Amino acid sequence: MLVAELTAPRQFRLVEQPMEPVAAGCVRVKVNAVGICGSDVHSYSEGAIGDTPCEYPMVLGHEPAGTVVETGAGVTGWAPGDRAALEPALYCYHCELCRAGKHNLCVNLRFLSNPGHPGFFREFVDLPPTNLLAIPQQLSFELASMVEPLGVALHSMQFAAIQPGETVALFGAGPIGLLTLASVIVAGAGRIWVIEPVKHRRAMALEMGADAALDPAEIDAAREIASETGGRGVDCAIDCAAKEHTTNQAIQSARNGGRVVITGIHSASFVPFEVSPMRRKELAIFNVRRSNHEPEDALGLLVDHAEWFAPLATHSRPLSAIAEAFSIAENYADGVGKMIIRTR
Q: Fewest beta carbons less than 10 Å away: which of 99, 145, 180, 181?
């Protein structure tokens, strides 16, 4: 099978790898589409995700959808030709957190696309049946690849706890930011400000339903939000960008007793927080670790509201052109929203 390996920052190589017979209890899937995530771009351009360095060669990609081609001995419920969104995390199911239902915090978690655990930028993958979520025929593989990131956005809503009519400031309108915007709208938020430096992303945010899209290069977002709210601030500020000072801008934008949710992944291992306003406001600060039992809800949203999400999948490239795809994604070039890698 063809595999795209990251061999150094901004360097891919395509290699042919042999395939063993499918193991008992596993399902072999043809990977049809994989979205490029912001964390993939961190690995590609920075050689690390936060404090986790890359170990080369490695295979990235963790937003996959594909088609069953073969099942191993003992597998029931799946057959060749079945279509599925694929869960990239392998959980132990017996640690303290798994037993508590918090599988995303599994202490023995193996995440496919981390060092030592190849991801989905390859033609085929073998998975346990529990990692497959059946998708209907009318849903494209491109949209099905959004199940994973939309699940993350929906998981963040547990912490955002948006009540009908509450105000929200959303920092970052990349793919995860736009999916979070959709989740905030579904939750019934009132006025929503999106803060995003890239022009075409601000336009996409407005098209999806944001009430205002601010360019942080031209305006102090926290000051503008304070002005528009009579000095109160927003009920919830969500940082999907995790770049430079966006977390502190979120802290500045939140009202007294408000909530700040950090969904994005900072490049640096240590980030300075403005602790005085955080303390004075008695803010609740939440961090998000992927999703936990939300993929089914994500799939339902994608099926029921495909018209919301289809415009996000702006670009696709074959696996053979993965280097070009990552360059476009890294540089926000060509009006890119979500870049999808196709292996079919």
A: 99
**What counts of helices (H) and strands (E) characterise the chain?**
12, 19
Two tokens, residue 87: 């869960």
Query: What are the structural domain ranges in the chain?
Result: 2-146+313-342, 152-287
Q: Based on C-alpha coordinates, what's the Rg of the chain?
A: 20
Length of the chain as a residue count: 344
CATH topology for the 152-287 domain: Rossmann fold (3.40.50)
DSSP classification of residue 289: -
Whether residue 136 is preceded by a cis peptide bond, meaning omega within 30 degrees of 0, is: no
Two domains, one topology: 2-146+313-342 and 152-287 = no
- Which CATH code is given to the segment(s) 2-146+313-342? 3.90.180.10
Q: Which residues contact 108 (CB under 8 A, 6 or more apart)?
A: 91, 92, 95
Confidence class for position 243, pLDDT limits 50, 70, 90: confident
Q: Is the pLDDT of residue 244 over 80?
A: no
